[in-house]
Amino acid sequence: MSTISILNIVILNIIAWVIFSYFWGGWTFHLYKPHRWLELKNKKLINKQILKAESDIKDKNRLYCYWMLQNQLDEQMISGDVIFAGVEELDFIKLAHYINPERQIVVVDPLSKKDIHITKENCQGKVSEQDIHLNNISREDLDKSTINPDKLTIFQGKISEQITCYKGAIASAWIDCVEQDDVSAALSHIYKHLVPSGIIFIHDYNHNWETVELAVNRFLLSIPESFISLPDMYGTIAIIKNK
Fold first, then answer.
1. pTM here?
2. Residue 115 near residue 133 (C-beta atoms within 8 A)
3. Calpha distance 186→160 (Å, rounded)
4. What are the per-10-residue average pLDDT scores of the chain (243 residues)?
5. Is the C-alpha dihedral spanning 53, 58, 60, 62 positive or negative?
């Protein structure tokens, strides 16, 4: 058998393996959409903006969990604003607005690129320090978004300082920051203003941010509620306030 024939066989086997892996992966790791989502979609009861968000947002688990819990607030007639303490992208802010355009959207964030300095300890007890660059969205990004300006309130600045400027009633909150003082201040203030049956989402709890886990665990000692973990990529948890 010639060298060319051997190479052709090898190449064909590689192509066959790639095709097999693709279809095998699609079969074994199929993501099932919630039945309710499919039912409402078939009845054309999900608006086009939310359907577009489904295409744009990569983390489908987080998308469907958030959509279902936000709708749960509406079904239970839970009034209040939707607040975001810390934002790195517009997707979920816009999604919250599309789900219930009547609710006020509140954003608390520096709205600027920033570097954060963290100290981490590994399993062997070795402590290391590192600087991490975050590309947060800007005020201009929010102004150019499709959110109704009358339904958008912005407190721009460091979260731990700006969060206390908010004085309203909260139906749901999304906390997406990693500095311990920001997480602690956001949790404390938001919980005080959270209505019964309201929901606090804390992103990155089951990820690699020890600062988030420490702040949340300390806060949980002061309240009667526990949390549930969402099956999204970066470990979001949700706290539902008791009635």
1. 0.81
2. yes
3. 7
4. 72 76 58 91 94 92 95 96 92 94 96 66 58 74 90 96 97 94 97 98 90 95 96 93 95
5. negative
